[in-house]
Design brief:
By secondary structure, this protein is mainly β. The protein has three helices and 18 strands. The protein is about 15% helix and about 40% strand. The strands form three sheets. A six-stranded antiparallel barrel has the order 5-6-7-10-9-8. The protein has a six-stranded antiparallel β-barrel with strand order 12-13-14-17-16-15. Bound molecules: zinc ion.
Length: about 325
Amino acid sequence: MIIFGSKSKGVEVGVDIEDFDCPHCQQTGMVAHGAVRYFHIYWIPMFVTKKSALMVCPHCKYTVEDCELDKQTANSLKSLVYENKKLIGYNFGLFAIIALFAYMSISSTIIGLISAATAGDEPTNATDQASEAPAPEAIPAAPAIELLIAEGFNGSGFIFNFHGEQYIACSLHQFDGLSPEIMYGSELNPIEIVEQVAKQSDLQILKFKVEDLPLTGVVNYSSRDTPGVKRNEPVYIFDTMNKSYLGRIVKSSFAGDAHIKMEDTYPAAGMSGSPVISARDGNLLGVVLSADSGENATLVGFEMIRWVNTPKVISSSSH
Ligand SMILES: [Zn+2]
Protein backbone atom coordinates (compact mmCIF):
# COMPACT_ATOMS: atom_id res chain seq x y z
CA MET A 1 0.00 0.00 0.00
CA ILE A 2 1.25 3.43 -0.86
CA ILE A 3 0.43 6.11 1.67
CA PHE A 4 -0.02 9.50 0.10
CA GLY A 5 -2.02 12.66 0.54
CA SER A 6 -1.58 16.34 1.14
CA LYS A 7 -0.48 18.23 4.19
CA SER A 8 -0.21 21.86 5.16
CA LYS A 9 2.69 23.47 6.86
CA GLY A 10 3.51 27.00 7.89
CA VAL A 11 6.52 28.66 6.38
CA GLU A 12 8.25 30.94 8.88
CA VAL A 13 9.15 34.08 7.00
CA GLY A 14 8.51 36.98 9.32
CA VAL A 15 8.27 39.83 6.83
CA ASP A 16 7.15 43.02 8.53
CA ILE A 17 4.16 44.63 6.87
CA GLU A 18 4.36 48.12 8.31
CA ASP A 19 1.41 49.73 6.55
CA PHE A 20 -1.31 47.27 7.49
CA ASP A 21 -3.57 47.80 10.46
CA CYS A 22 -4.74 44.83 12.50
CA PRO A 23 -8.47 44.43 11.88
CA HIS A 24 -8.88 43.26 15.47
CA CYS A 25 -6.82 45.56 17.69
CA GLN A 26 -6.21 48.32 15.11
CA GLN A 27 -2.47 48.42 15.88
CA THR A 28 -0.41 49.25 12.80
CA GLY A 29 1.98 46.67 11.44
CA MET A 30 1.63 42.95 11.01
CA VAL A 31 4.06 40.08 10.31
CA ALA A 32 3.64 37.95 7.20
CA HIS A 33 4.27 34.23 6.94
CA GLY A 34 3.58 31.60 4.38
CA ALA A 35 1.65 28.36 4.44
CA VAL A 36 2.08 25.61 1.91
CA ARG A 37 -0.03 22.65 1.05
CA TYR A 38 2.00 19.83 -0.44
CA PHE A 39 1.44 16.39 -1.79
CA HIS A 40 3.29 13.66 0.05
CA ILE A 41 4.05 9.98 -0.47
CA TYR A 42 4.88 8.27 2.81
CA TRP A 43 5.05 11.76 4.32
CA ILE A 44 7.91 12.69 2.01
CA PRO A 45 6.91 16.02 0.46
CA MET A 46 6.70 15.55 -3.30
CA PHE A 47 5.49 18.88 -4.58
CA VAL A 48 3.67 21.97 -3.45
CA THR A 49 0.01 22.08 -4.44
CA LYS A 50 -0.87 25.45 -2.93
CA LYS A 51 1.03 28.40 -1.61
CA SER A 52 -0.76 30.86 0.58
CA ALA A 53 0.28 33.75 2.79
CA LEU A 54 -1.05 35.13 6.04
CA MET A 55 -0.39 38.02 8.36
CA VAL A 56 -0.25 37.79 12.13
CA CYS A 57 -0.74 40.71 14.44
CA PRO A 58 2.25 40.84 16.82
CA HIS A 59 0.05 42.33 19.52
CA CYS A 60 -3.13 40.27 19.60
CA LYS A 61 -2.06 37.33 17.41
CA TYR A 62 -5.03 37.90 15.14
CA THR A 63 -4.47 36.23 11.76
CA VAL A 64 -5.51 37.52 8.36
CA GLU A 65 -5.33 34.96 5.55
CA ASP A 66 -4.66 35.98 1.96
CA CYS A 67 -8.06 34.69 0.88
CA GLU A 68 -9.65 37.40 3.04
CA LEU A 69 -7.79 40.13 1.17
CA ASP A 70 -8.49 41.59 -2.24
CA LYS A 71 -6.67 39.79 -5.03
CA GLN A 72 -4.03 42.46 -5.65
CA THR A 73 -3.10 42.73 -1.97
CA ALA A 74 -3.09 38.96 -1.62
CA ASN A 75 -0.78 38.59 -4.60
CA SER A 76 1.69 41.21 -3.42
CA LEU A 77 1.65 39.63 0.03
CA LYS A 78 2.40 36.21 -1.48
CA SER A 79 5.20 37.51 -3.63
CA LEU A 80 6.71 39.25 -0.59
CA VAL A 81 6.60 35.99 1.36
CA TYR A 82 7.80 33.65 -1.37
CA GLU A 83 10.23 35.94 -3.15
CA ASN A 84 13.20 34.42 -1.34
CA LYS A 85 11.69 31.16 -0.29
CA LYS A 86 12.43 28.46 -2.84
CA LEU A 87 10.30 25.82 -1.13
CA ILE A 88 12.76 23.16 -2.21
CA GLY A 89 12.05 21.23 0.94
CA TYR A 90 8.43 20.73 -0.06
CA ASN A 91 9.34 19.77 -3.61
CA PHE A 92 12.00 17.46 -2.32
CA GLY A 93 10.44 14.24 -3.61
CA LEU A 94 9.85 15.72 -7.04
CA PHE A 95 13.44 16.92 -7.29
CA ALA A 96 14.60 13.54 -6.08
CA ILE A 97 12.52 11.76 -8.71
CA ILE A 98 13.66 14.11 -11.48
CA ALA A 99 17.25 13.61 -10.36
CA LEU A 100 16.78 9.85 -10.26
CA PHE A 101 15.30 9.76 -13.77
CA ALA A 102 18.04 12.03 -15.08
CA TYR A 103 20.63 9.79 -13.48
CA MET A 104 19.03 6.66 -14.90
CA SER A 105 18.81 8.03 -18.42
CA ILE A 106 22.38 9.34 -18.31
CA SER A 107 23.73 6.08 -16.98
CA SER A 108 21.79 4.03 -19.52
CA THR A 109 23.14 6.31 -22.26
CA ILE A 110 26.62 5.78 -20.91
CA ILE A 111 26.06 2.04 -20.70
CA GLY A 112 24.73 2.17 -24.27
CA LEU A 113 27.84 4.01 -25.41
CA ILE A 114 30.10 1.60 -23.61
CA SER A 115 28.37 -1.43 -25.07
CA ALA A 116 28.46 0.19 -28.52
CA ALA A 117 32.17 0.81 -28.06
CA THR A 118 32.85 -2.73 -26.91
CA ALA A 119 30.37 -4.34 -29.30
CA GLY A 120 33.16 -6.18 -31.07
CA ASP A 121 33.73 -8.42 -28.09
CA GLU A 122 30.15 -9.03 -27.20
CA PRO A 123 28.56 -12.27 -28.23
CA THR A 124 25.11 -10.78 -27.53
CA ASN A 125 25.55 -8.37 -30.39
CA ALA A 126 23.84 -10.50 -32.99
CA THR A 127 20.85 -10.97 -30.72
CA ASP A 128 20.54 -7.23 -30.22
CA GLN A 129 20.67 -6.75 -33.94
CA ALA A 130 17.98 -9.32 -34.53
CA SER A 131 15.68 -7.75 -31.96
CA GLU A 132 15.92 -4.44 -33.84
CA ALA A 133 14.55 -6.06 -36.98
CA PRO A 134 10.95 -5.03 -37.63
CA ALA A 135 9.82 -8.59 -38.34
CA PRO A 136 11.47 -11.96 -38.46
CA GLU A 137 12.64 -12.60 -41.97
CA ALA A 138 13.64 -15.75 -43.76
CA ILE A 139 17.00 -14.88 -45.26
CA PRO A 140 18.09 -16.96 -48.26
CA ALA A 141 21.49 -18.61 -48.07
CA ALA A 142 24.42 -16.69 -49.50
CA PRO A 143 25.19 -17.31 -53.16
CA ALA A 144 28.46 -19.10 -53.89
CA ILE A 145 31.03 -16.58 -55.00
CA GLU A 146 34.66 -16.78 -56.00
CA LEU A 147 36.93 -13.98 -54.98
CA LEU A 148 39.81 -13.01 -57.20
CA ILE A 149 43.25 -12.26 -55.88
CA ALA A 150 45.36 -9.51 -57.30
CA GLU A 151 49.03 -9.65 -58.20
CA GLY A 152 51.12 -9.79 -55.04
CA PHE A 153 48.00 -10.89 -53.11
CA ASN A 154 47.45 -7.29 -52.09
CA GLY A 155 43.82 -7.02 -52.98
CA SER A 156 40.70 -8.84 -53.96
CA GLY A 157 37.93 -8.44 -56.44
CA PHE A 158 35.19 -10.45 -58.05
CA ILE A 159 33.44 -11.06 -61.33
CA PHE A 160 29.90 -9.91 -61.92
CA ASN A 161 27.33 -9.97 -64.69
CA PHE A 162 25.92 -6.76 -66.06
CA HIS A 163 23.91 -6.35 -69.26
CA GLY A 164 24.90 -9.87 -70.27
CA GLU A 165 28.61 -9.16 -69.97
CA GLN A 166 31.11 -9.93 -67.27
CA TYR A 167 33.26 -7.46 -65.40
CA ILE A 168 35.54 -7.36 -62.39
CA ALA A 169 34.93 -4.97 -59.49
CA CYS A 170 37.62 -4.11 -56.97
CA SER A 171 38.80 -1.19 -54.87
CA LEU A 172 41.10 1.57 -56.07
CA HIS A 173 43.06 1.99 -52.81
CA GLN A 174 44.42 -1.55 -52.90
CA PHE A 175 46.00 -0.80 -56.25
CA ASP A 176 47.24 2.72 -55.49
CA GLY A 177 44.48 4.12 -57.65
CA LEU A 178 45.62 2.12 -60.67
CA SER A 179 44.17 -0.91 -62.39
CA PRO A 180 45.70 -4.32 -61.72
CA GLU A 181 47.14 -5.99 -64.79
CA ILE A 182 46.38 -9.52 -63.76
CA MET A 183 44.10 -11.07 -61.17
CA TYR A 184 43.87 -14.72 -60.19
CA GLY A 185 40.96 -17.04 -59.62
CA SER A 186 40.83 -19.52 -56.75
CA GLU A 187 42.79 -22.07 -58.84
CA LEU A 188 45.38 -19.35 -59.37
CA ASN A 189 44.27 -19.19 -62.97
CA PRO A 190 45.44 -15.82 -64.30
CA ILE A 191 42.85 -13.38 -65.60
CA GLU A 192 44.20 -10.64 -67.80
CA ILE A 193 42.68 -7.21 -67.31
CA VAL A 194 42.14 -5.35 -70.56
CA GLU A 195 40.57 -2.06 -69.57
CA GLN A 196 39.03 0.02 -66.82
CA VAL A 197 35.43 0.74 -67.74
CA ALA A 198 34.23 2.70 -64.71
CA LYS A 199 35.73 4.45 -61.73
CA GLN A 200 34.09 5.77 -58.57
CA SER A 201 35.67 7.29 -55.47
CA ASP A 202 37.30 4.03 -54.32
CA LEU A 203 35.90 1.48 -56.69
CA GLN A 204 36.81 0.42 -60.20
CA ILE A 205 35.19 -1.79 -62.75
CA LEU A 206 37.41 -3.68 -65.16
CA LYS A 207 36.98 -5.60 -68.38
CA PHE A 208 39.00 -8.77 -68.71
CA LYS A 209 39.79 -11.34 -71.38
CA VAL A 210 36.74 -13.60 -71.48
CA GLU A 211 38.76 -16.59 -72.64
CA ASP A 212 40.25 -16.59 -69.14
CA LEU A 213 36.97 -18.01 -67.89
CA PRO A 214 35.47 -20.45 -66.81
CA LEU A 215 34.86 -19.20 -63.33
CA THR A 216 32.20 -20.17 -60.89
CA GLY A 217 30.38 -17.91 -58.50
CA VAL A 218 29.66 -14.91 -60.65
CA VAL A 219 27.55 -12.25 -58.97
CA ASN A 220 24.65 -10.50 -60.70
CA TYR A 221 24.40 -6.77 -60.86
CA SER A 222 21.15 -5.52 -62.28
CA SER A 223 21.32 -1.85 -61.24
CA ARG A 224 18.13 -1.56 -59.28
CA ASP A 225 15.50 0.93 -60.35
CA THR A 226 16.37 2.96 -57.27
CA PRO A 227 20.06 2.54 -56.58
CA GLY A 228 20.86 2.44 -52.92
CA VAL A 229 20.30 0.34 -49.87
CA LYS A 230 17.70 0.39 -47.17
CA ARG A 231 18.41 0.50 -43.47
CA ASN A 232 18.31 -2.97 -41.92
CA GLU A 233 18.58 -4.67 -45.30
CA PRO A 234 20.40 -8.00 -44.82
CA VAL A 235 23.60 -8.34 -46.85
CA TYR A 236 26.35 -10.87 -47.34
CA ILE A 237 30.06 -10.17 -47.54
CA PHE A 238 32.85 -12.70 -47.96
CA ASP A 239 36.29 -13.61 -46.67
CA THR A 240 39.35 -14.93 -48.53
CA MET A 241 37.98 -18.48 -48.29
CA ASN A 242 34.75 -17.31 -50.00
CA LYS A 243 32.89 -17.86 -46.76
CA SER A 244 29.83 -15.66 -46.37
CA TYR A 245 29.11 -13.32 -43.43
CA LEU A 246 25.69 -11.85 -42.78
CA GLY A 247 25.17 -8.29 -41.68
CA ARG A 248 22.60 -5.53 -41.87
CA ILE A 249 22.74 -2.05 -43.29
CA VAL A 250 23.08 0.53 -40.53
CA LYS A 251 23.68 4.23 -40.37
CA SER A 252 27.03 5.30 -39.00
CA SER A 253 29.72 7.88 -39.39
CA PHE A 254 32.19 5.29 -40.57
CA ALA A 255 34.03 5.73 -43.88
CA GLY A 256 32.12 4.50 -46.90
CA ASP A 257 28.79 5.06 -48.57
CA ALA A 258 26.89 2.70 -46.35
CA HIS A 259 27.71 0.49 -43.45
CA ILE A 260 27.10 -3.05 -42.41
CA LYS A 261 26.64 -4.13 -38.81
CA MET A 262 27.92 -7.69 -38.80
CA GLU A 263 25.96 -10.43 -37.08
CA ASP A 264 29.25 -12.14 -36.25
CA THR A 265 32.72 -10.68 -36.41
CA TYR A 266 34.27 -10.48 -39.84
CA PRO A 267 37.96 -11.02 -40.66
CA ALA A 268 38.26 -7.79 -42.63
CA ALA A 269 42.04 -7.61 -43.18
CA GLY A 270 42.72 -7.62 -46.92
CA MET A 271 39.02 -7.91 -47.66
CA SER A 272 38.60 -4.62 -49.46
CA GLY A 273 37.12 -5.73 -52.73
CA SER A 274 34.66 -8.26 -51.34
CA PRO A 275 31.26 -7.98 -52.97
CA VAL A 276 28.34 -6.77 -50.88
CA ILE A 277 25.32 -8.78 -51.93
CA SER A 278 21.72 -8.30 -50.92
CA ALA A 279 20.71 -11.31 -48.88
CA ARG A 280 17.15 -10.83 -50.12
CA ASP A 281 17.62 -11.01 -53.87
CA GLY A 282 21.30 -11.92 -54.29
CA ASN A 283 21.90 -8.76 -56.26
CA LEU A 284 25.27 -7.02 -56.09
CA LEU A 285 25.17 -3.76 -54.13
CA GLY A 286 28.75 -2.64 -53.73
CA VAL A 287 32.31 -3.35 -52.72
CA VAL A 288 33.77 -3.61 -49.19
CA LEU A 289 36.28 -0.83 -48.52
CA SER A 290 36.70 -0.30 -44.78
CA ALA A 291 36.13 -1.89 -41.40
CA ASP A 292 36.43 -1.04 -37.72
CA SER A 293 38.87 -3.89 -37.08
CA GLY A 294 41.22 -6.03 -39.14
CA GLU A 295 40.54 -9.31 -37.38
CA ASN A 296 37.15 -8.95 -35.73
CA ALA A 297 35.24 -6.29 -37.59
CA THR A 298 31.72 -5.58 -36.43
CA LEU A 299 31.19 -2.56 -38.67
CA VAL A 300 32.12 -2.63 -42.33
CA GLY A 301 31.98 0.26 -44.80
CA PHE A 302 31.33 -0.17 -48.49
CA GLU A 303 30.88 1.81 -51.63
CA MET A 304 27.76 1.25 -53.68
CA ILE A 305 28.08 0.57 -57.36
CA ARG A 306 26.40 3.48 -59.13
CA TRP A 307 26.92 2.14 -62.55
CA VAL A 308 23.36 2.31 -63.75
CA ASN A 309 23.87 3.01 -67.45
CA THR A 310 25.16 0.84 -70.20
CA PRO A 311 28.90 0.46 -69.56
CA LYS A 312 31.21 2.77 -71.44
CA VAL A 313 34.97 2.48 -71.60
CA ILE A 314 36.61 5.37 -69.76
CA SER A 315 40.22 4.29 -70.12
CA SER A 316 42.25 1.48 -71.62
CA SER A 317 45.22 -0.07 -69.96
CA SER A 318 48.41 0.21 -72.00
CA HIS A 319 49.54 -3.38 -71.84
ZN1 LIG B 1 -4.13 42.94 16.66
